[in-house]
Amino acid sequence: MSNQYAILEGAEPFYFEGNKIGILVSHGFTGSTQSMRPLGEAYAKAGYTVCGPRLKGHGTHYEDMEQTTHEDWIVSVEEGYQWLKERCDIIFVTGLSMGGTLTLYMAEKYESIKGIIPINAAVELPDLAAVQNLDGVRFLDAIGSDIKNPEIKELAYEKTPVKSVGELVQLMEKVKGNLHKVTCPTLIFVSEEDHVVPPSNSNLIYENIASDQKQLITLNESYHVATLDHDQPIIIEKTLQFIKEILSK
C-alpha cells in the first residue's frame, strides 16, 4: 500500500556518520523528520553518528499513515537503532511528541541505551482517547505545526486518521504502564504552553521513571513543536551538555 505514495520533500530519513557514539532521533505523530533535522545536524556537527528514521506511513500522505500500526512505528525506530548499533558503542535516544513516547519505549526495552531525551512526550491524552471511538469519522483536523514562532511551519499532515489515533493510544498505554522500566539517565524537555500534549505528561514521566539521574527542563518560548521553535538552541545545547556529562563519568 505504502509504495503508491512518494516521500514529501524534507521528510526523508537522515543519516550522519560520525564517531562511536550514536544518537537516534525520532519525529512525532503525523509529523516528519523535518521537525528533528536541525537537532540531527547539530549533533552530527558535534561529531556524533546520527540516525533520524522516517516512521512508517509518515512524510507521505495521511491515507498512507492510516494503513500503519504503532508496531510499524516501533519497527521504524528499531531499524534506526540497529543501524546505529552496527556503527556505535554507545547510543542515546531523543524524540519529539510521539517520538518521545517511542524514546521511552526504547529505554524500557533496551537496557543498553545510555541516556534518553524525551521532548514534549505523550503518555496520556484523554481527549484523543475519546476521539478514537467516533463512528463514521475517518479523518480529523490536523494537529501539526503548534509553533509559537509565526515564521516557522512544521511539515505535517493536514488531516489525522482516526484509526491512527487509536494506534497512538495503544502505544501510549503500553509505554505508560512500563515507565518504571526506564532506568537510564533522562533529560526531559517540556513546553510551558503546549496545545497538543498537556505539559502534565512530562511531570508524570518524571515521577514514574526509575532513573537515578533525571532532570526536567521547562521551555518558556515554545509550543508543542519545540524542536523548530524559539527554544531549539536550548534543546541542542542542554542535550549536548547532558551527553557530555554522561560520557565523562
TrEMBL record:
<keyword id="KW-0378">Hydrolase</keyword>
<dbReference type="InterPro" id="IPR051044">
    <property type="entry name" value="MAG_DAG_Lipase"/>
</dbReference>
<dbReference type="InterPro" id="IPR029058">
    <property type="entry name" value="AB_hydrolase_fold"/>
</dbReference>
<dbReference type="InterPro" id="IPR012354">
    <property type="entry name" value="Esterase_lipase"/>
</dbReference>
<dbReference type="Pfam" id="PF12146">
    <property type="entry name" value="Hydrolase_4"/>
</dbReference>
<protein>
    <submittedName>
        <fullName>Alpha/beta hydrolase</fullName>
    </submittedName>
</protein>
<dbReference type="GO" id="GO:0016787">
    <property type="term" value="F:hydrolase activity"/>
</dbReference>
<dbReference type="InterPro" id="IPR022742">
    <property type="entry name" value="Hydrolase_4"/>
</dbReference>
<feature type="domain" description="Serine aminopeptidase S33">
    <location>
        <begin position="23"/>
        <end position="229"/>
    </location>
</feature>
